[in-house]
Structures are given as C-alpha cells and as structure tokens.
Amino acid sequence: MNFGLIGAGGIGRIRAQALAQLPGCRLVAVADADPERARAAAPPGATSFARYQELLESCDVEAVVVSTPPASHEEITLAAVAAGKHVLCEKPLSNSLDACRRMVEAARRANRVLTTGFNHRYFPAVKFLKQTLSSGRIGTLDHVRAFAGHTGLSEFQAPWMYSKNAIGGGALMDVGIHIIDLVRYILGDVREVYGVATTGVWNLDRSEDNGFALLRGVSGRVATLHATWTEWKGYRFFVEAYGDRGMARAYYAPMFAMAIYLDKPGGRRQREFHFYPEIILREKFRGWQTTTTLAFQEEFQDFVKLAQGAGSGAVSLADGFAGFRAVEIANAVYESTRTGLPVRLADPF
Ligand SMILES: NC(=O)c1ccc[n+]([C@@H]2O[C@H](COP(=O)([O-])OP(=O)(O)OC[C@H]3O[C@@H](n4cnc5c(N)ncnc54)[C@H](O)[C@@H]3O)[C@@H](O)[C@H]2O)c1
Predict the structure, then answer these.
(1) Is pLDDT at 206 greater than 90 in this prediction?
(2) Residue 42 carries which DSSP code?
(3) Domains of the chain
(4) Which of 175, 203, 208, 217 has the lowest CB atom count within 10 Å?
C-alpha cells in the first residue's frame, strides 16, 4: 500500500521510519508546513510538499497518516477521505468531540478506513494481558485498573502540547488518551463516567495536571483510571485486569507483564512473569523509539488488512469510533468535574 505522511515532526518521523522498513508498504509522499522537515522525512524517491493539499492530489497515495497537532486533524482527515484516501490519524483523534464525530461520519459516508493511532495496543505486555484474559486463565473479568503519566512540563517540546485549545484538555487528552483506549479495549465499551480533573501543579493554559476517573462499562463492570503530568519518575503506564480467578498486568517502561491465577477454582496459584530483556537492552542503546517503531509497524500491517477488506474482528486496531469514544470519556471527566455528577455516554452512532 502506498502511504502519504502529513506532519513530519517527532512522531511523523518515527512513522516514516516504521513504513520504510515494512514489506508491502511504501511511503511515497511527505507533507509538512515546514518544507525542510518534509524533505528530511521523505525516503529516496518520495515527493515532499509544504501543503498537504498537494499530497492529497497525488493519485499514487492510497492511505494517509495524519501526524500534525490535534487541532488540524479534522480539516486534514476530511480532505483526505474526500480525496478517496484511507486515514490513520494520530491520537487524540481531535481536540473536539464534535470534530471527532464529523471525522467518523465522513469516513463512513466515503467508505474509507479511519483508524486512531492507539499503538499501545501493540506493546508486547499489553498483547500478553489481552491474550491472558481471552484464554480464561484469570477467569471472568471483574474490574480494570489503569494509570499513565509523564513528568509534565519538561516533557513538552512545543507549546501546543500543553495547550487546552490545541489538544482539547490536559493529561487525559495527552498521555491519558492511550490508557482510556486500553481500558475500553479490555473492559468493552463504557456507559458511564465519574471523574475529577485537577490543575494544582503546573498551571499550564487551563490544562489539567491530573485526571481521575471511575468508569462503568456497558457490561456493568468497573474501571479506575489515573492520567498525570506529575509522574516525577518519568514516562510509564500500566493496565491491570482482575478476574474471579486471578489478575494480569501490563507495564511500561520498562516493558513487563505478569499474571497470577488459580489453575482451577480453589486450586493452586500459578505465576507468570515476562521481563522482555531484548526490549530493555534495545531501548538502552537505541532509545524508546525502537519499541514505538515496532508497534507502529504492527499497526500499519493491521491497517493494510483492514483497508483490503478484513473485518474489524481480524485486527487489533483502534477504529475511528474508538478515537471518538476516548475523547468523549476525557470530556465526560471534565463535565463531571464541573457538575460533581456522573456522565452517561451517548449511544454509538
Ligand atoms: N502515538 C503516539 O504514541 C504519540 C506520541 C506522541 C504524540 N502523538 C501525536 O502525534 C501527533 C504529532 O505529534 P508530534 O509530537 O510529532 O508533534 P510535532 O510538533 O513534533 O510535529 C507536528 C508537525 O506537524 C506539522 N504541521 C502542523 N500543522 C500542519 C499542517 N496543517 N499541514 C502540514 N503540517 C503541519 C508541523 O510543522 C510539525 O512538523 C499529535 O497528534 C500527537 O498527539 C502520538
């Protein structure tokens, strides 16, 4: 599949590297408002543009990766699906829920694939957790616990990265949006949200430093979630699934997974630990980007399958609706903070 990349900043460059090493995928064009960045990210033979509209006019491009700041995702995605392209859009799907809805609806009307860049689904520890739950080893799911955070202020390379207008919120819309998605991925769809967002530490453009949420799934099962920009230790997240016979945990960084479960009701405790030494070593010498690149590659492989007609059940990808729902859950925490009440989510459209 021939890809075009729009937005060749920090993440766009990793997307370009992931595509360059992936059999069956070709990066044929790169656009960035900064033409130097577009040129630098374009592999040999690919065309670079300063205006994304010119990239969309190229018949060669079958699918587009949108890796610009969130406030421009809607405009670019609507133009891309109108030009007949499939779209993989970075997280968060947009800085506004109405924009997310318009993006999902436009892709459906045009019969184009729209997916959200929730690449954490492809981290080996998360895959272990998902498989452990599906295998029945921890029994029937009871509840989910999730956390994600980074250091906040020192993490941001550009002012838009902590601007409420640009990203639609704070920690929940930034690092938190990945674990909001992972909670839905494990728990199933969410029906109700209660939460509190706080701004006591950095005072960054009205964006919350911490978001705490209690979610009730359509199944009636519960999840707790905390997203933070005050994780002094540095970037990390975990997701845990608790069943009626045991529990499983996915943790990063470093990559780590474990499960503890009874081999039969009332039976012996079994323990599984996965330390991923090859990932830890690779990251030590070549950086966290190596893990992200591998996750992006698996995500692209699923994207191609989906665009070629595989059903959504055959892939682990987060579709456009998953991107919409994640933003809706973050927004529900903001509303709940204002009113002190739980928020019921809209029915799927
Ligand atoms: N999947 C992940 O794990 C992950 C991690 C971090 C960031 N992100 C997301 O990736 C996206 C990009 O983040 P980043 O860190 O690379 O940002 P960045 O600021 O480093 O890069 C953004 C690039 O987009 C370009 N740009 C902006 N508006 C444009 C337009 N209208 N047309 C063409 N180019 C335009 C800028 O010139 C810049 O080069 C964001 O949505 C961010 O939330 C995803």
Answers:
(1) no
(2) S
(3) 2-119 (3.40.50.720), 120-344 (3.30.360.10)
(4) 203
Q: Which two tokens stand for residue 239?
A: 């997701």
pLDDT in tens, 215-229: 999 999 999 999 999
Give mean pLDDT, residues 195-201: 96
Mean pLDDT of the chain: 97
Q: How far apart are CA 317 and CA 115, in angstroms?
A: 7
Q: What is the dihedral angle through the alpha carbons of 104, 105, 110, 113, rounded to the nearest 10 degrees?
A: 20
Q: Which pLDDT does position 165 carry in this prediction?
A: 95
At residue 93, the pLDDT reads 98
Q: Which stretch of DSSP H or E encloses residue 242?
A: strand 236-243
Q: Give the distance, in angstroms, between the CA of residue 278 and the centroid of all CA atoms in the same chain.
A: 24
Q: Is 296 in the pocket of ligand 1 (CB under 6 A)?
A: no
User: Is 67 touching ligand 1 by the criterion CB < 6 Å?
Assistant: yes
pLDDT, residue 348, reads 86
Q: State the pLDDT confidence band at 265, using cuts at 50, 70 and 90.
A: confident
340 alpha carbon – ligand 1 mean position (Å): 34
CB of 291 shorter than 6 A to ligand 1? no
Tokens, residue 123 = 């981290």
> Taking residues 46-66, what's their average pLDDT?
96
Choose one of 67, 122, 292 to mutate for the ligand 1 pocket test, by most ligand atoms within 8 angstroms of C-beta.
67
Q: Using the 8-state DSSP alphabet, how is residue 202 labeled?
A: S
- What is the per-residue burial (b if ≥16 Cβ within 10 Å, else e) of 290-321? ebbbbbbbbbbbbbbebbeeeeeeebebbbbb
Strand ranges of the sheet holding 86-89, from the earlier edge strand across to the other edge: 47-49, 26-31, 2-6, 63-66, 86-89, 114-116, 318-319
Residue 99 near residue 289 (C-beta atoms within 8 A): no
Please state the pTM of the whole predicted model: 0.98
CA 280–ligand 1 middle distance (angstroms) = 26
Q: Assess whether the C-beta atom of 11 lies below 6 angstroms from ligand 1.
A: yes
**What's the distance, CA 225 to chain centroid?**
15
